[in-house]
Amino acid sequence: MSRFIARRLLLLPFVALGVTALIFSLTQLLTPAMRASLYITDPRQLNGLPDIIRKYHLDQPVYVQYWEWLRQVAHGDLGWSETAREPVLAAVQGFFPATFELAAYSFACILALGIWLGTASAVRKDQIIDHISRFTSISGASLPTFVWGLVLLMIFYGHFGWFPPGRLGLDADLFVRSGRFHPYTGLLTVDALLNRQWWLLWDAARHLVLPVATLTYFLTATLVRITRSSMLETLRADYVRTAEAKGLPRAVVVDRHARRNALIPVITLASLLFVGLLSGVVITETVFNWPGIGRWGVAASQQLDIPAVTGFALIFAAMLVLGNLCADVLYAVVDPRIRLR
Amino acid sequence: MAYLGGDDAERRHAEGRSRRAESRQRAVGVVVQRGLVVAVAMLVAVLMYGTGARGAASESVRNPDSLVLLTYGDPESLDPAYAYDTTSDGVIWPGIYETLITYDGSVLSRYVPRLATAVPSVANGLISKDGLTYTFPIRQGVHFHDGTVMTPADVRYSMLRFMLQDRDGGPSWLLLTPLLGTDSTRDSKGNVVVKYADAAKAVTVEGQNVVFHLNHPYAAFLSILSAWSFVLPEKWAAAHGDWDGSAASWTKYNNPKLQDRYEFDHTNGTGPFMLQTWDRQTKELILVRNDHYWRAPAKLARVVIRTVSEFPARQLELQRGDADVIAVDRPDQTKVTGIAGVTVQDGYPTLVIQVMHFNQKIDSTANPDVGSGKLDGNGIPPDFFSDVHVRRGFAYAFDYNTFIRDAFRGKALQPNGPIIQGLLGYDASLPKFTFDKQKAIAEFKEAWGGKLWDTGFHFTETYNTGNAARQIGAQIIKDVVESLNPKFKVDIRNIQFSSFLQVTVEHKGTLYALGWAADYPDPDDFAQPFLASNGDYPKRNGFSDPRADQLVKQGAETADPAKRAQIYRELTKIAYDDVPGIYEAQATQFVVMRSWVHGWYYNAILPPLANVGFDFYTITKQ
């Protein structure tokens, strides 16, 4: 398997190359002057627009332009974001931890709830749990995120005052900025743990509840349906019937024989779901005033902040590739029949 | 048999294993289920406890030493010589930077000393009889936030820096005009034309006094200095790469871009609050109390200004008491009325006008809002709005009453030009445009030699993100204009405020919504930026009328109020004839805050941060 992973990792730059080529081709729909903004790392350069067009050969053939662009990216220079008022790379580094934290917790909840509910729904087909599961799936998939988010916000913050929007309360925010708090990872819950600030951990967790709940409700639906159908199919398989015929308890048959095999399509979905989560938190971040990459992405798109949007797309494309790699590796872990070579 | 027997034994053994496994599984299941029940019970208990605490807290003042203000605009720059948008100005003044004199609370016609020790007047001899020399005795013992002592030399440096930095679309004209008789340090080609010696002579230090030598008598000069004479330390600025005050180097620091200046995101004023953080990712500013302030320290320990673009989140934070003041647009006013513990104070007359601007010289380079850039039905040419019939067509196509009803809940006036009610020279009897589709059609049919009606047009109008009133205005234009002719297409795009300003300064706006808040309460502050060809908006929009230029100049220099009033009436007529913009509304304003906020007073000149301006120094929470 290690050879497979190494080979896939070696392929990564080439896949990324293809993705960037695609992104770059799309930018060709813009005028040379618009594309020149990719090379502007400081607003002072705006006056020298014609010089930048010449310098970076923006009036040259596409392959020449692509090479120039790649050289810039290779130097870690993704341009200047007017929206963030800082270089794109710095903005990504700043915004990413908040989004990652939100996505990671949501992903854990989606996975746990989705697989459990999907399995229970298949095992107890047409029983009450199945009906609840299907209703939840349909309503979760059909209710817009912003509506669900606002409803949750109004009930659990507006009415009960339990889970506020934003990432931290005022006291916690001031403490984090006081110099007495060391931001090791940028993930506030993890940093609070490492700093042994339990009250801050509690505050950060309270702020996570509603956006995580919104994303979980919205995205669990697909996972539940896939898990359910996959489980139903597996439960009808000969080897499952053999296991039952041998007299094995239902729980053992379900847990060890059926679910493990039924998880294969779920893994494909789940690994892509995580990447999707990272890019799909746009609305959730906006509704809950979460200072993440999604909210920035919305602002950047609205303002035609081309360098920000390009950098944004490039980073998520790379993450998609890594997500797929994770899925391939997990196949082999879950299904012993699959050998990665 | 042995084989069978062995099989039997194996089966029994297997059954035994599976029973044990089943029993283990059940035991684990029971433990897990019980664990879950306990965990859920604990969570509920904790949450209920938390709610109890919250419930109790909501009755008392939340965060008693901090004022939390939620708005939807983010500042462009904290440099007092660069900042020229209300959010930036509202952050830095009067909290961080102070002026020589200022307005007496809510009263705009009366001044009180601040960094000066007296308000100049002819009577006290600090204004010369010819009205050309203003002397300000500078207060001693005032410290900047870095602990250094303020000197008259710092005051002089700050005034010169304010004038000579002179960035495109910035506030420098406010001092350049009365002191040097020009509104810019550069000519139309961008070449520096002002001489340092002239500027140096205009502001001098005489002992503990700073003396201003005016180019011409200017009635509004004290009013200008009351809001635009911020002081920062010369040595601190020079030590951080800014101008060192020398004659030889000033041009190097002329017309900087946003981040050229260290003061873009660092401050060092004399005010009651100091900048602690400007986090551009969380869009949050934190000001902390200056305990060494020359007056008694402020009551509040800190002020938190946060950008929350979604109204529901702002509303809920106010409702829960986590925010003390929030920005609310008129259409949303009913949503905050009647909330327990929240006060809505309404009816404050503003010196603010909402205008849709026509850019008559659009820069179509890399401009996504002009479509094809030609008059072919798929775009507009750069000079599309230079035809007065186009402008009149749009002015007649704007439904003023609907806009005022929907965007301001009826609480606004339709102005007849940039000289709004409350200013000298305002005359309600002067003509103004009315909503009239037939007249709009007639004007459009005449536009571009009759060609426009057949070809049609397609462009994008813009407004700043989060401003519901401007969004409504933009939508009204789109709906009405598109209903006149199927070949007329108008799209709408919203842009974050700071970037939006940049777009308009770079002449890339088409038809865009942008208001004007008074810099100082004088008609000159509206006539100059709206109608003088070197004014803020005419420069952005390529508008020019020599008659207007002459009248604006006369109005600024004339001392007699009656003569001035007549001049501004003439200018209002010119605005009606030339239609440089659609004068949509002059609003009255309201403020939404928690009832525990005290000490706020209304001043129409303080830059609005959350509907209105704030002097944080006087505010307490109790």
Topology diagram in text:
The complex is a heterodimer of chains A (341) and B (622).
Chain A: H1 2-27, H2 32-36, H3 49-55, H4 62-74, E1 80-81, E2 86-87, H5 88-123, H6 128-142, H7 145-159, H8 170-176, H9 188-194, H10 198-235, H11 238-245, H12 250-280, H13 282-287, H14 293-302, H15 306-334
Helix pairs in contact in A: 1-4, 1-15, 5-6, 5-10, 5-12, 6-10, 7-10, 9-10, 10-12, 11-12, 12-15, 14-15
Chain B: H1 2-59, E1 66-71, H2 86-92, E2 101-104, E3 107-113, E4 133-137, H3 152-165, H4 173-180, H5 196-202, E5 203-206, E6 209-213, H6 221-227, H7 234-239, E7 273-279, E8 284-289, E9 302-307, H8 311-320, E10 325-326, H9 333-336, E11 342-358, H10 388-396, H11 400-408, E12 412-413, H12 437-446, H13 452-455, E13 457-464, H14 468-484, E14 488-495, H15 497-505, E15 511-517, H16 524-531, H17 536-541, H18 546-557, H19 561-578, E16 581-594, E17 597-598, E18 620-621
Parallel strand pairs in B: 1-9, 1-10, 13-14
Antiparallel strand pairs in B: 2-3, 4-6, 5-6, 7-8, 8-9, 10-16, 11-15, 11-16, 12-16, 17-18
Helix pairs in contact in B: 3-4, 10-12, 11-14, 16-18, 18-19
